[in-house]
Amino acid sequence: MKLSGVGELALLETLRKKFTKKTVGLVLGIGDDAAVIMPGGKQTLLATDMMVEGVHFDLDWTTPYQAGFKLVSVNVSDIYAMGGRPRFLLLNFAAGENTDIKVFNRLFDGVDLALKTYDITLIGGDISSSREMVLSATVIGHSGRILRRSGARRGDNIYVTGRLGDAAAGLELMKIIKRPVEIEKNRTTDFPLKWDIIKSLIERHLMPVARRPVKFANKASSMIDISDGLLLDLSRICAESGTGASIFLEKIPVSEGLVKAAEYLGTPPHEFALGGGEDYELLFTAPAREKVDAFCIGEITDRGLKIIDKTGKAEKFKLKGYRHFAG
Amino acid sequence: MKLSGVGELALLETLRKKFTKKTVGLVLGIGDDAAVIMPGGKQTLLATDMMVEGVHFDLDWTTPYQAGFKLVSVNVSDIYAMGGRPRFLLLNFAAGENTDIKVFNRLFDGVDLALKTYDITLIGGDISSSREMVLSATVIGHSGRILRRSGARRGDNIYVTGRLGDAAAGLELMKIIKRPVEIEKNRTTDFPLKWDIIKSLIERHLMPVARRPVKFANKASSMIDISDGLLLDLSRICAESGTGASIFLEKIPVSEGLVKAAEYLGTPPHEFALGGGEDYELLFTAPAREKVDAFCIGEITDRGLKIIDKTGKAEKFKLKGYRHFAG
What we know:
The structure is a homodimer.
Chain A: H1 3-6, H2 8-19, E1 26-28, E2 35-37, E3 43-52, H3 64-80, E4 85-95, H4 101-118, E5 121-129, E6 134-143, E7 157-160, H5 166-177, H6 195-206, E8 222-225, H7 230-241, E9 244-248, H8 256-265, H9 269-275, E10 282-286, E11 295-301, E12 305-308, E13 314-316
Parallel strand pairs in A: 4-5, 9-12
Antiparallel strand pairs in A: 1-2, 3-6, 4-6, 7-10, 7-11, 8-10, 9-11, 12-13
């Protein structure tokens, strides 16, 4: 059955039934003109993002379930990157009249998995028609201490929370595979790389899980999530903090899977790790005296953005990373 | 110059400079992973909406300035309809690579006018590329007393804050005019109706101003804004409140301009007033003992949705009004 055969009101009612639940701090959820929350004296964080079919995701490769999960993850990642705890979600959905109701349902199943993963509640949104599918989400969170991009200081160490480049390599693999891979059902695909490598990489691209900064939030001086690539996002921290940075190429953590896939793809692994977006690992700085359980990849300097290779040779950043409307 | 020649980062920087201002309750605005507000013990209201080119607006008829203004208005209207005061705005913008920078700038000029009109602050958002233009906004507001849809009680009077049907008639006129009318510059157009009539109607469609319920908020028992048509929105109040309603056809306020345009369009004025969406007037109920300075159009009953004409004949609602994916 098509969305045009179901109607907006019935779709909204489905969501209302599926997602309504009692939640601390929630006064009024789905179903009125606006949602109402009661933050109780805490600071409220707000992050919003839009995902457009054909730009941010491709339904020829991505299942609706994956798109729904990812939409929530990228916004949750922004809240985590500020040291916050995500609490609530607003979601706008637009798609063509001829979209199958199964697509709608699977997308919201993916949203539901994300809600459970991050322990958040869907409290409102909007459904409308469009040509290409468009999703936009706003995540609302709370925080005591806010971690801004601008807090890095000379001498701080630079950390990342996990291996980089997997999502970018996963995207390159998807461009070759060119059809949906239902990693959530653990389906295999014929490809000259082992399934567990393929799965680990494309999963990072298709269904990224945001990193909760639980162990670092009270030690970090600045933080950002890596959505547009290590170099580009680090340059943002430096620009906001008025500092430079040096990173050590061989200290950047990469997965074994990335090394193998990079060889297959004919691109050096560090190209993915430095410039590849959508890893959704956290990039943060902390004073050198703090003991931090994460990958230390460099240090904050007075000025200049440098990559130092294993021979000690320093090279200036080339700012690679995903930018819309890049000239 | 095209957006692809400017780049996402430069566009964001433009917005940051244009819209950054100190605001009470705002901890951190545009430029980090998330915005941070400090609600100070009040209830926080959240409303979100998406506008898709070709569905919600047509750039062949609507100027970017008008689209930007309207995007904010429709969300502010949702906050007002809950008895709230709008405070902050998050805005996502997506458009084609070849979009002219002037379109971007004029759209945000329209957003800026709306921010000043409603005294709110833009605190974050996202810019990306797409084929058709897509805008989504989230408005955050505060409120003491929340006005829900569910508070109507038998015997309450039903009120609207202004004349209905103008926006729907304006839309029909725009379908004939079929080119942008820069009402903001007071441009005339050749058409067999007086310019002041055309202007008043198409302005309601192109640049609606949300109604602040300042005089009614403490008297109303339920409230909704008329975005999808009087009958459809009233049926929502009744469904949520578990009541019926009777409205008196001749009490529904219509403008002189609507009467003249309706005659020209060959449709009875009350068709626009009952079923036409996007008036963004408020529809509310209040106990009959309250003195209310608004148009009383009927009363809440036990059950049934009835329109009573001047002869006293009652007819059931036909639920007209805009619905996406309407079968």
